[in-house]
Structure formats: C-alpha cells, structure tokens
Amino acid sequence: MDLNTKVSELGKVGKKVAKQLEIIGIKNTKDLLYYFPFRYEDYRQVVPIAQLREGELVTICVQVELIANKRSFKSRKMITEALVSDKSGSVRVKWFNQPFIIQHIKTGDIIYLSGKVKSDMLGPQLVGPAYEKYKKETTHTARLVPIYPLTKSVTQKQIRFLMSEVISLADKIEDWLPKDILEYTDLSPLASALRGIHFPVDEKDLKLSEDRLKFDELFLVQMKAELAKHNQQLLRAPAMVFREQNIKQFVNSLPFSLTKTQKISAWEILQDITKSVPMNRLLSGDVGSGKTVVAAMAMYNVLLNNYQSTLMVPTEILVQQHYQSLI
C-alpha cells in the first residue's frame, strides 16, 4: 500500500462505499489523509458505572452480560439491547435499527462504550453509544474522537477505520517546508500534523497539528498570489500618457468638487496606467462614494491616448445609469 493506492483496494471497502467516497473527493489513500475532521468528541473520561450521571459524555469499560435483538411493539423498529457490567455495577445499553451489532459484540466480550448518559424510571442507560472491543489503542472510543463530514452510505466508523488503516502512510508524504523554516516558526513536521489532526493524543497535539496545516494553507494562498503578481509583471501593456491639462479641465467642469480620497485614487490610477505593465487594482468604496467619476477620469485619459476602454456593470439598469452619467 502506498499514497496512490485506490480506496477501493483497501480492505472492507465495497464498490458502493468507494463510489460515495469519490463523490467527496477521496479516490486514493493520500486523499483520505487530507480529508480532515471538522470537530471532535471528547470520550477520554473513562468512569465506573456507579459514577454515571445523566447528561455527561463518558466512556465505560465493561463486560457484556447479555445482548439480543428485539422488535419494538409499537413502531416495529429493531432494537438491540444489552446489559453490561464492571466491578461497580451494571447498566442497560440500547441501539436502534442496528441489528448487525450482535454479530460484532458477544456475551463475555470486554468493550468500551462511549456516549451521553440518559436516565428513565429504571435508572441510567446508554442509548446509541459508540462501541469498540477493548484494546490498547482505540479508534472510536476512550479518546478525542474525530468527526468527519459525511456523504450518503458512509459512516463515521467506516471513515475512522479507513483512516486508522492508512495513517502510517503520513510518514511517506514529503515535508515541503525546509527544516530552517520549521524551526523558525516552531511548527510541527507534516507527518506529525497529519497524524495529530486525525487521532490527537490531547488538546496540545491537536493545536500543534492545526497550526501546521493552517500555516500550509495560508502560505500556499500567499505563494499563489505572489506568483500571479510576478507573472503579471512579465506581461506588456500600452503606456497611457498622462494628459494632465485635459484631466484638470474635466475635473473643473464637474458640477461638484472631488474629495481628497477621490483625487488620491484617481492620481494613483492615472500614474499606474502610464507604465508598460498591466494595471491590476481594486477601487473599493461604499455606494455613492464616487467611484464612477474616478473610473471616468481613467477612461477619458485612455480615450485621449486614442485607445478604447470598457465599463462593465452587473445589471441592465446600471448600464443605462452609467451611460447617462458618462454622457
């Protein structure tokens, strides 16, 4: 297995699930590693059954005493019920419409259960908890559990299981940031960040992972902007001579006085188009702040250089309004 292995080639991935994963952009193991959780459930608090309190988000490590499926008398829904215990007592567990659970959990199994405690007249119970057989390294319980955006026919357990299968491949992704930048910025290596974003040990590990991946995203955005700026400087454009006297006459003919900001903006634009490099500017201002007259000055100067200009607006009504204003 490598970074280009298709998810359809991973164990326990059927064609239907592979097709659904492809819809959300997951085609291979590398795509899977870069499919990040959007939040986490904190199931690290492992408590004995005797300390269960309604409304708390907890994990219990228990032995299965009984487990069976039955059909609800009223709604006819399938219900899986279990009785589990530890040294401090026992508690009821219930799942709805998951009859397959009895294929995975058997009487006598030691399991983790994670979820919110609910109570009824018979006492506390767990309804629809996450479950996992006891082991040293857990994936779905007894830890900070990642929650991923999902699509149809794909479950959190499936995504987490697949992630646990490929997470070791994080070490094979080359860290594109030089070591001196990592040291200067005090950022985590990429492999550590990928492991920590999916299966964080604690809040500190999660924070370090998020910081590194957010840095990468912002850094690439800045690099893309700088590259676009560099490429633009390589382009050529006709230089517009600044027709100062004509522009002054235009300004003096207006039925209003330009504001200081309008004068500065117009001056910068008119100076910019004298260069042989294409201008790329955003003139920003509130409605009615006078952007149109600044654009008109630039268009007039272009006309005086025997070139054409185009004014584009989003609606036909604005077309008419700007046309009348320019006239």
Strand ordering within the main sheet:
2-3-4-6-5
Overall residue-averaged pLDDT value: 93
Helix content: 25-40%
What's the overall geometry?
A: elongated
Biggest sheet features: 5 strands, mixed, barrel
- Series of secondary-structure elements, N-terminal to C-terminal: HHEEEEHEEEEHHHHHHHH
Count of DSSP H/I helices: 11
How far apart are the first and last residues' alpha carbons, in Å?
69 Å
- Specify the structural class: alpha+beta
User: Which residues sit in consecutive blocks of at least 5 with pLDDT less than 50?
Assistant: none
Q: What multimeric state do the chains show? A: single chain
Radius of gyration: 32 Å
Approximately what portion of the residues adopt beta-strand conformation?
Answer: 15-25%
Count all strands and give the number.
8
